[in-house]
Amino acid sequence: xxxxxxxxxxxxxxxxxxxxxxxxxxxxxxxxxxxxxxxxxxxxxxxxxxxxxxxxxxxxxxxxxxxxxxxxxxxxxxxxxxxxxxxxxxxxxxxxxxxxxxxxxxxxxxxxxxxxxxxxxxxxxxxxxxxxxxxxxxxxxxxxxxxxxxxxxxxxxxxxxxxxxxxxxxxxxxxxxxxxxxxxxxxxxxxxxxxxxxxxxxxxxxxxxxxxxxxxxxxxxxxxxxxxxxxxxxxxxxxxxxxxxxxxxxxxxxxxxxxxxxxxxxxxxxxxxxxx
Length: 276
What we know:
Elements lengths: L1 E3 L2 H13 L4 E6 L5 H13 L2 E6 L9 H6 L4 H8 L5 E3 L3 H4 L18 H4 L3 H16 L3 E5 L3 H14 L4 E5 L19 H7 L1 H9 L5 H13 L4 E10 L15 E9 L2 E8 L2
Parallel strand pairs: 1-4, 2-3, 2-5, 3-4, 5-6
Antiparallel strand pairs: 7-8, 8-9
Helix pairs in contact: 7-8, 10-11
């Protein structure tokens, strides 16, 4: 595995690889890697000849400066963790990626106006800025993203459509801790007690499947979350999986999912579940 630090070297390397007719897979990450990330990288390894992984804490997708400051940065550990599953790791500085303040503006329609888009203004524009640049620089055949960030995948697919990017976006299933908590880089910020308590998020979502319909599901989840002192609910929405628009009955759409964000202390965790 080779570590690439500059955009020039990244683009040159990608051009050389593709000139050989090799299939290229890419996994964009913000580092602090865990088994969830590794599952994406392993899938990329299985489906491509060459794998690029980017490790870059993207400042323009954070609408909270404290959140950016606290985000874990563990490059040496990450590189060791990836091992031979990737061929190239792109680990640039902020100045390398953004030599000037980015000015791009992306609009994704209704898919960005709900849930994370409503709760974190500017977040998805920042995601679009970095993902567009990475895909332009590497031009992978396939790019891999985890379904824990389900709305992000929908946004990236719309970005790819609008910008006529040829890379295929490949969603990958959520990987969970042994206690059921969705794996996240933010889990490192939890105390041991918070880590065990946070597992209740997934338990509550699973138990909500026994409820009759959307109103009962919402009432159950909100009530159960409220019982746990360490939790503060940001939102819980039930939406059509394709459009991410709110539904009021499970009969309204063929695919329906629940999306939740909970603060555990000061750590913001997201998860989702499929109802049908």
